[in-house]
């Protein structure tokens, strides 16, 4: 009798980190499996550690090799950390994509805004609907989150049911969209859930995440009490928050002016899909300066300090249409993503220097998380009653705390894994049974580079310690044809004793060449390597840093 197919799971991104989500499920035996991918997201570059890198994406080399067995890609929702890598990486996979209407429409708008984006078809599945994708039957279960149409996925297989939560929370009073479908989740618990693959983002926070309804009330109060102009910044994709801002503006008899392309795009998609039905029309930035100060509200992109977004330009006083003055107010209806603190702080400081009143979540309930706190995690476990829980979507501490909570809540098996671990879910005892290739891809301009990319490594070094360029012209006989030329980029002009670095480096280049035996001076590679070592050593001696050194030897 043939042994039953194994169901396996492997995270390729989003475990041990927040962002860059990509999970895969396999059904079959170790020689051949059908694969299902869930989400394909990005995380964002950090200028300090990754200068010039715009986006970071998961390494999909394993899925490229398994392309003929990849049945499809399913999207839980349309946040960048869950669908932002599709345009760049889908051409390597060319698999069917499945999403609900809002996610599909927002993705279509994103493609339309990108230069030379490929044609990427998306199959639309109704919210609450089911679809067969190879041997997987995938059910889209509505959950509350900070974007319309977020879904947990119940993945039905012959080996059992897996609940992949995606991003979720329990919000009994969402201002837009359906609440988390407790009834269906309880029904799944009665059917029997083999494994719960769950969001750990807020596993370190006690209690419950507050409701969007409470934020909406706070924003109404703040906008009604404001005297001058008001600007509100939030994540563009948070349509419930956009609606709350629109309702506050209406209550205060203000016009809403939308500022920023990402916000304009989401507003358009939300109107197309019916999520802003009955909400007043918004105005374009050109009318902002013509409206009385107490009759206007600017809804802006830039809550994360993005340098090219609307709010950064307003704070720097270089936006062509939007200005703020003393007595005006800015509401940050968002949380600062770790890594963005410096950029957001700079914007806040610039606004304060202009006399603008800045209100953040430290001052009032102007933002709530879209992720579950500890009591909500306990509720889900009690509804679903999983045999196994695997924490995902979190850094090491979040995963650890989620695992501890699950054990205390009586989950029979709890397993913490890392990106690249291949986990057997069933049948039989679960456990890590292997490893699949995983890693990071860096989007550098229009080029995708792997983590070993010379450009990425060298640019990081150059950002820390500059670079020395040396050009040398030698005769065929091994004599200098002219004086060496130097260019020291990002290196101090003088050492602590006040001596010019140009002179120090020039002297060491000359003495190194003159000290080489004639036979080695006739070898351009030998000259270049000797000079490179000497230049790095002398700069290190006088500065304490070893910059990259590029030496070009020309034989004339």
Automatic annotation (TrEMBL):
It comes from the Bacteria. Residues 21-219 form the Metallo-beta-lactamase domain. SUPFAM superfamilies: Metallo-hydrolase/oxidoreductase. SMART domains: Lactamase_B. InterPro entries: Metallo-B-lactamas, RibonucZ/Hydroxyglut_hydro, RMMBL, RNase_J, RNase_J_2, RNase_J_b_CASP, RNase_J_C. Keywords: Cytoplasm, Exonuclease, Hydrolase, Metal-binding, Nuclease, RNA-binding, Zinc. This is Ribonuclease J. It comes from Bradyrhizobium agreste. The lineage of its organism: Bacteria, Pseudomonadati, Pseudomonadota, Alphaproteobacteria, Hyphomicrobiales.
